[in-house]
Design brief:
Number of helices of chain A: 7
Largest sheet of chain A: 9 strands, mixed
Order of helices and strands of chain A: EHEEEHEHHEHEEEEEEHEH
Organism (chains A, B): Aquimarina muelleri
Domain Survival protein SurE-like phosphatase/nucleotidase (chains A, B): 8-195
Oligomer: homodimer
CATH superfamily of chain A: Survival protein SurE-like phosphatase/nucleotidase
Strand content of chain A: 25-35%
Pfam families (chains A, B): SurE
Number of strands of chain A: 13
Helix content of chain A: 25-40%
Catalytic activity (chains A, B): a ribonucleoside 5'-phosphate + H2O = a ribonucleoside + phosphate
Largest interface: A-B, 81 and 83 residues
Protein name (chains A, B): 5'-nucleotidase SurE
Chain lengths: 260, 260
C-alpha cells in the first residue's frame, strides 16, 4: 500500500524564475507533489496587497521541462497567487504552502512588508499550514545549498505535527556556510523599524521624484528575538499570527469616554 | 498663553479626492493643524505594500483653496504616504495620524488587506499615535455625517490619553443614521475570511483573464467581535498590533525536532 504524497503549493515574491524559488522547489520535490503558482515579476515589498482594480492573468509555464512539478505564472501579487491556486488551479486543498526562499531577510518588522510572508499568511487564513523561508542574502547568486537540509527538517515537522489554526511560520536563515549554522531557534519578532532615507532626484523633464530607501534600526536587546538568533548563527523561526487584536489593551480602552 | 494645536497627518487609500478623506479633514480641522499626504489614485487592497522597484512622486496640491490644511498628492501606496510625510514633508513628528474615512469595511480579517489600516499601522511603527476609520458603505456618495461626532470623540481621547507603543486603533462605523448608532464598543477582530470567486473572462485577443471577487464568511459567533458590534448598531474599535508573534505557540514549537 502506498501512501499518497502530500500536495505542496510553492510561491514567492521574487518572481517565478528567481533562484530562491527554484531551490525551494528542489527540496519540496523530495517530499511531495509540487504545484507552483508564483508572480510573473518581482513583487518584493508588496505586503498583503491584492489586485482588485485590475485584471489578473495566470498561465501554465514550463521552466524546466524535465522537472515533475506543474507551474503557473500569475500577473498578480503573492497573495493573489495563493488565492488563484486554491480557487482556480488546485483540485484539492494543499497539505502545505511554502513561500520563498526569499532573497533577503524577513525578520523583525520586515514580516509586515514582505510579499513572501504575506503569501504564507494568506494560506494560513485559508486554513493551509504555511511557512515562509528567507535567506539573509539579497544577491541573485545567493547560495541556497546550506539551508536545504534545515528547510527539509522544518517542512517534515510541519507535515507531521500540523500547525494550530491562525499560526504560520516565519523562517529566516543566516548567510553562512553549512558548518557555521548552529541550528534552529524559536523566537519572537524583534521590535525594530526602518528609518527612511528618500533619495530625491530630478527627472529629465525637471520634475522631482524619489527612491525609497532606509536604514534598519533594531533597538530590541532581547536574546529571544529573531534578530539575535540570526546575528548569532542560528536559523530563526517566529510563529506568526494574523489576529492583530492587541488583547492586552482592551481592558484599558473600556475605561475611556468614547461615546461622544 | 495659547496652547499649540496638535499636528495631525491625514491619509487614506481611496485617493486624495475621495469624499471619505474630505469628511475626515473637516473633522480634523476642528481639532488641530492638518497636513494631508494621500495617494493620487485609489489604493484599496494594497495592504502594507511599499514602492521599492519604481519611483515616487509627491507634489503639493490645492483641492479646496479656502481650506486651512496643506495637502500633498503622492504616487505611491498609503504606507509610502506615511513614510514620505514623516521624512520629507513634516518638519516635526505629528501628534496623530488618521487614515480614512474608508469607503467600505475594514473589520475582521479585512484589516490585513486594507491600505487604510496599513497606513495607520505604519504610523504606529514610527511611534505616532494612529487611527484608521472606515464606514460600512462602499458608495462614493456615502453619508459620512453621522460618524463625525464619534470620530471627534475618539480622536480627542487618543490625543488626551495617548496609545501604548505598538498599538493603533481600527475603527469601523455602521451605515446608519445618527440616531440609530448605539455607541462605541471595544472589540476583538472577528475570526472571518473571504472565499474567492474568480470571474473568468476572455479578452479580445482570446486570452483568459480573471477578476478577483469573493464572499465574506464570518464563522465567529463571539459577541465581543467587531462583526457582532457592527451588526448590532455599534461603532467597533479594535486595538490593533504589529507584533505578529504567536507567543502562545512558542513553548510547543520548542518541543519539535527541528535541528535537521
Amino acid at each position: 500500500m502506498t501512501q499518497k504524497k502530500p500536495l505542496i503549493l510553492v510561491t514567492n515574491d521574487d518572481g517565478i524564475t528567481a533562484p530562491g524559488i527554484r531551490a525551494l522547489i528542489d527540496v519540496m520535490n523530495e517530499i511531495g507533489e509540487v504545484v507552483v503558482v508564483a508572480p510573473d515579476s518581482p513583487q518584493s515589498g508588496m505586503g498583503h496587497a491584492i489586485t482588485i482594480n485590475s485584471t489578473l492573468y495566470c498561465d501554465p509555464v514550463i521552466i524546466n521541462k524535465n522537472a515533475p512539478q506543474k507551474e503557473f505564472s500569475c500577473s498578480g501579487t503573492p497573495v493573489d497567487c495563493v488565492k488563484m491556486a486554491s480557487r482556480e488551479i488546485l483540485n484539492r486543498k494543499p497539505d502545505l504552502c511554502v513561500s520563498g526562499i526569499n532573497h533577503g531577510s524577513n525578520s523583525a518588522i520586515n514580516v509586515i512588508y514582505s510579499g513572501t510572508m504575506s503569501a504564507a499568511v494568506e494560506a494560513g487564513i485559508e486554513g493551509i499550514p504555511a511557512i515562509g523561508f528567507s535567506l539573509l542574502d539579497y544577491a541573485m547568486d545567493a547560495n541556497f545549498e546550506p539551508s536545504k537540509k534545515h528547510i527539509k527538517a522544518i517542512v517534515k515537522n510541519v507535515l507531521k505535527n500540523g500547525l494550530p489554526k491562525g499560526v504560520v511560520l516565519n523562517v529566516n536563515i543566516p548567510k553562512l556556510e553549512e558548518s557555521e549554522i548552529k541550528g534552529v531557534k524559536i523566537c519572537r519578532q524583534a521590535n525594530a523599524h526602518w528609518v527612511e532615507e528618500f533619495d530625491k532626484r530630478t527627472n529629465p523633464m525637471g520634475r522631482d521624484y524619489y527612491w525609497l530607501s532606509g536604514k534598519f534600526i533594531n533597538e530590541d536587546k532581547g536574546e529571544d528575538t529573531d534578530e539575535w538568533a540570526l546575528h548569532n548563527g542560528y536559523i530563526s523561526i517566529v510563529p506568526t499570527q494574523f489576529d492583530l487584536t492587541a488583547h492586552h489593551f482592551i481592558q484599558e480602552l473600556n475605561n475611556w469616554s468614547l461615546n461622544g
